[in-house]
Specification:
Organism: Haladaptatus litoreus
Oligomer: single chain
Domain SpoVR-like C-terminal: 547-598
Strand order of the largest sheet: 8-9-10-11-12
Domain SpoVR protein-like N-terminal: 14-344, 480-545
Pfam family, one: SpoVR
Protein name: Stage V sporulation protein R
């Protein structure tokens, strides 16, 4: 009873922040799904984190492992769970009952931005638009439980099968929308419907001849050969195994047809992989987007009260200051850079339309102090209080929410707490124009000659304004936000980083790369060059940061063996992990499995010479074939001609590097 009272009390406490955060989010241009908020306790939060944010998942040992890890992180490492939000329409968000009101407000504003991203990003719509996630995962959980409860099915066999499939959960085609129309083989129908049977039927053979010459064993062999015919490598390994794989039966010592439950479990887990793909392909964008708008609402629009701001600042510092490659920090910095760049473009293009200002003399004739003063928000926008409401009447009508202003004058709105309620989107954009912020004051002046020349190429009407003041009065203060919304709708992490991680961004934010030194046996900074930093970042986020593996042949060497290929771009596979994965894949294929890859080998003599000269030895790249036949592994050399098709182009971001990025 006490617990129920506490939950109800917390729900009442966050009711107003939930309502007001939604209104503020929409004022700022966000268009989120509706969000249902749930109050949960500490243990429930840990359970949800272990279950990837959902209340029900299929039975498996890994959930307990994740729960234990989360509890220890909270208890011993000082970690704190702030929020969980589920991509659905409506979205679902969970607030931990024991968190302070400042933390709850931060979570709510963060969630509203996430929900906007879910609703408007094309990659979320591509992977998960037609999936009711909570219902889907609940059905899967119920079905797996019923399979495990079947007296004719060994529970341990189900858990092992799930393990086998999970080792390939990221081996889907993340560039394609989820498709479920692949035909699952059914031997009862295959004889009458597959292509081979149709061809035999066209030959008008007698039943006697057909049964004697083209028996079931021959037909099965032909089907397996057809499974090996691939027009191009198949990236969706789970779909390939569903359609062409067989299970290894240790009792019979050979491959057998998958049981119905095995096909069903495989397809359920594949469906879940596609659902979670959207989160994995947009991690930096999504978390950065939420961090940006949370900061805007909590800090710059004072959604955190004066008595809550210090606690919120500590909250934000912990999130953005966590070690390693932090998607919150990187994403927020990139969104701010996009905003600044678009705002600078707007201001610069207006300046270059002033008589006497060209891209050649820009830095010599423009008074940047004057420009900074001219683009500052109107005083009536900068300081909105109950005593300055009349000042808003002198502003252009598109910058003021006339209805909100009238309600504020009537005392229906506490404008001292919620100044944004009397402003429009355009008014808020001017109020928060990024080039006015102290940390961005030098961004306009730092524009390079090459960028100026590029702007000038497409500049028409280059003497539109007589004075700088006239030009600055015509600045569109919403261009930065508008550009952010366009990018939010169309990009994923790879295209986001590729398009907006520029040399200027890398230099301004002091990014660099480091890697393990074969010479010294420790880690060293290797480069602060833009190209190197960008490539390593791209490597980290392409294909969910995992190696790209595809099926190259389902009838390798005409022996019904599987040939996989590792897309190599300069980063080796971890051979130890690869062998363990092949053991799992063997259970899904039922016959020997081969993996072709490229390794780097270093001659000991060359390594010694390099150490003496304090240099890194130059490795030699060689083709290798790793084979597993169910009992032992073999590694063979491959001629370069047989691995050319798995080598990357000059710039290719398709696997995870062993080295980490600072």
């Amino acid at each position: 009873m006490n617990e129920r009272i506490e939950t109800k009390r917390e729900a009442e406490r966050v009711r107003e922040p939930v309502v007001e955060a939604r209104k503020l989010a929409k004022k700022l241009g966000l268009d989120p799904y509706p969000v249902k908020y749930w109050i949960i306790d500490y243990d429930e939060m840990n359970e949800l984190i272990a279950y990837d944010g959902f209340q029900e998942r299929y039975p498996h040992w890994r959930w307990g492992m994740k729960y234990d890890r989360q509890q220890k992180q909270t208890q011993y490492a000082g970690g704190k769970a702030f929020e969980i939000v589920i991509n659905d329409d409506p979205a679902h968000a969970f607030l931990q009952q024991s968190n302070s009101l400042a933390d709850q407000k931060a979570v709510i504003t963060h969630v509203e931005a996430h929900s906007d991203f879910f609703a408007n990003n094309r990659w979320y719509r591509m992977f998960a638009d037609e999936l009711d996630a909570a219902a889907l995962l609940s059905r899967h959980a119920d079905r797996v439980r019923s399979i495990m409860a079947d007296s004719e099915i060994d529970r341990e066999a189900v858990e092992k099968w799930i393990d086998n499939v999970l080792c390939l959960q990221d081996n889907i085609d993340q560039h394609q929308a989820f498709k479920n129309q692949h035909r699952v083989r059914d031997d009862e129908d295959d004889h009458d419907t597959d292509e081979i049977s149709d061809q035999l039927a066209d030959m008008n053979l007698s039943d006697e001849v057909r049964d004697e010459v083209f028996d079931d064993e021959w037909l099965e062999a032909q089907r397996e050969k057809q499974a090996g015919k691939l027009e191009e490598p198949e990236k969706d390994l789970l779909a390939f195994f569903r359609d062409h794989g067989r299970a290894y039966d240790p009792e019979e010592g050979k491959a057998v047809e998958m049981e119905d439950w095995q096909k069903e479990v495989l397809e359920m887990l594949r469906t879940e992989s596609y659902y979670f793909a959207a989160q994995k392909t947009t991690k930096v964008m999504n978390e950065g987007w939420a961090a940006y708008w949370e900061s805007m609402m909590m800090g710059e629009e004072s959604f955190a009260g004066t008595d809550e701001f210090i606690e919120y600042a500590d909250h934000q510092a912990r999130v953005l200051g966590s070690p390693g490659l932090n998607p919150y920090k990187l994403g927020k910095q990139l969104w701010e850079y996009i905003e600044n760049t678009e705002n600078r473009r707007e201001v610069v293009r207006k300046l270059m339309r002033v008589k006497g200002i060209t891209w050649r003399n820009f830095h010599d004739v423009v008074d940047f102090d004057e420009v900074n003063e001219l683009i500052e928000p109107h005083p009536a926008l900068e300081s909105v209080t109950s005593e300055t409401l009349s000042d808003l009447e002198s502003l252009p009508s598109e910058k003021v929410d006339s209805e909100g202003l009238e309600r504020a004058k009537a005392g229906e709105i506490d404008v001292d707490r919620h100044p944004w309620k009397v402003l429009s989107y355009e008014g808020l954009a001017e109020r928060h124009f990024s080039l006015n912020k102290l940390q961005n004051r030098g961004f306009l002046e730092s524009i390079g000659q090459q960028t100026l020349e590029q702007y000038a190429r497409y500049l028409m009407d280059d003497e539109r304004y007589e004075t700088v003041a006239e030009a600055m009065a015509d600045v569109d203060f919403a261009v930065g936000w508008n550009r952010m919304y366009e990018v939010r709708a169309s990009h994923n992490d790879v295209t986001f980083l590729d398009g907006f991680l520029t040399k200027e961004f890398v230099t301004d934010n002091n990014y660099f790369t480091y890697e393990f030194s074969q010479t010294t046996g420790d880690y060293r900074v290797t480069s602060s060059e833009y190209e190197d930093v960008k490539k390593k970042l791209m490597l980290q986020f392409t294909n969910f940061g995992k190696p790209t593996i595809a099926v190259y042949d389902g009838n390798y060497d005409n022996r019904n063996e599987l040939l996989l290929g590792h897309h190599y771009n300069g980063v080796m596979l971890d051979i130890g992990q690869a062998t363990r994965t092949l053991e799992r894949i063997y259970d899904l294929w039922g016959r020997p499995v081969n993996l072709k890859t490229i390794v780097k080998e270093i001659d000991e003599r060359d390594a010694e010479i390099a150490r003496r000269r304090d240099r890194e030895p130059e490795p030699e790249e060689k083709g290798k074939l790793l084979r597993y036949d169910g009992n032992e592994f073999e590694m063979h050399d491959l001629p370069w001609s047989e691995v050319e098709d798995i080598t990357a182009t000059e710039v290719d971001y398709d696997t995870k590097p062993d080295e980490w990025l600072a």
